[in-house]
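Handout, section B. The chain below has 240 residues.
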Amino acid sequence: MKKLKPTIIFIVSFLFLSCSKNKATSEFEQVLGKTNSITLSVLVENFENDFLLKQYPDLSVTESYKEFLIDYGKRKFKNKQFLSSKDSLAFINSDLEKEMYYHPDSVWILPNSTYDKVEEDSLLFIYTDKPYLKLRKKDLVSSSEEKIVYKYERHYGIIDNSETHQDSLINFVKNIRYTNYYDGRYRQALYHVEKYGGFFERFSERKGIISKLKMSELVLNEADLSNALVRKIIVLEFVL
């Protein structure tokens, strides 16, 4: 039997890796959903053509992603807006946002603790004669398709009695984002591509366990930044 030439082996390996990358991206988008994938593709393209191009005008797209991750790790982007106001609003109102995050579904300002009660989560509360804030959110761990279980939080502090202040506070709290680590389609899509091993497996396993800064180091050191799926993950994780 004749031995395969190194060039042929290289070509076969290259084609195999390319097919694997394309398949991983395709399967990720399938789990994420068609509408969400379209939204994400638009946001990625706008991020590259707007923020990255302006921030790193002399670099290729791949090198721009690399520098972005380096700068992110150095905390250079504190309070930095990565997307235009139009894109930010489009994301906030998108189904994709709902797959990545969840928010309190009810918020109250109670005049004092006599208006409160022990809820289904059985957490006790502080007895006080001063107003405080109470919110309800879905318990993602305990909830099921048959029954939604809720968790409650109470925040004690100085609350202005004016109606305008209280309405503003309630609106602010309703928009607090909690990351959906359990049943969102983005999380499910990451689980789905773990089977491709390497970076995708390690990233999925460590999501929610290590900090964003450590995650950015993982992407920088282990991911192929020219890979379309890796770029989508960067935008999902560090931009949105």
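Note. The CA atoms of residues 130 and 237 lie 39 Å apart. Compare this with the example in section A.
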